[in-house]
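Quick question: what would this complex look like in 3D?
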Amino acid sequence: MQTSHIIDLRSDTVTLPTEEMLEAAKHAKLGDDYYGEDPTVNKLQEMAAQRMGKEAALLVPSGTQANLISLMSNCCRGELVILESESHIYWYEVGGISSVAGLFPWPVKTELGAYTSEDLKAAIKPKSLSYPEPSLICVENTHNRHGGTVLTSHQLNDFSDIAKQNNLKLYMDGARIFNAAIALQTTPDRLTKYVDNLMFCLSKGLCCPIGSIIVGNKEFITKARKIRKLLGGQLRQAGIIAAPGIVALEKMVDRLKVDHENAKLLAQKISKIKGIKIDLDSVQTNMVTFDLDSRVEDKVFLGKIKELGVLALAMSKNKIRLVTHYGIERSDVEKASAAIELTLAGFRL
Ligand code: TLP
């Protein structure tokens, strides 16, 4: 069995810009963003702030930089940040929270990425001469390492109440906030109204080649702008990347539901395969994360499905992730699950 093209399910970051995005980039009106003079960047930032129900927004190169800038804009060095123990900030951002921002991460273990009120209250320690000052609670929506799971407005409301009662700010890594909104059949502003500020990515399921946006009140964004400069992230004629971002917000959001349907189909299909353990309740958006039988080495599994034209990612030992996105059709889902079935059949489990 061999597919004619590679079915790349490693991430939605592998999406390529659409023709319309390339055209928009080519014709974008440009200016120097240092002076606030790039009209396309300004338009995208205004659109983003409006979509998220906040006062202002700032375009930055990546989600990682957006998180770092936001941490530094929300907190002072030495303060304590409560975050989920599987969060992207904690796992995949080179420890910038400590090494660059000078903050003390306090990881909290959860089920499917959602704190309980008890978890959060327990993590907020009483004032003491011995403890660092807590200043921020972070949430991730959707939650990557928990399989693209969603935080509801009800949960966010609870977190917001606890944050306020304790004089803490609430920040959202909303890299995939549109996936969360689509899954909950709501609009992103109904989720973001509970957080002080957030970032979301243009370069994941929305297909942009580059870019993330930090959103919050004017004072926060002014601070973030300065920290972006400090970190070497000042942009110039960035209309080139903002123009695809505008197309993304206008045209690429509603279709995310197709990715969610494909992920559900993929999960259902592979859940029947011997050697795979999957919690179907965790498949809420465009990610399918499963445990591989411990007798199968993940590297060998990934190598064998690659030979059949399917790419996947190992998240931890024997924990595999498949992500659906623009360009992945229902027929690719069928082919990918057939390739996985064929591969695991070879192990005679
Ligand atoms: N996530 C990537 C990898 O780093 C794992 C992926 O393929 O999913 N927050 C969240 C929740 C993310 O998933 C990511 C990227 C980021 C932040 C960072 O974004 P970038 O890659 O633009 O720095």
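Answer marked as accepted. The longest strand covers residues 134-140.
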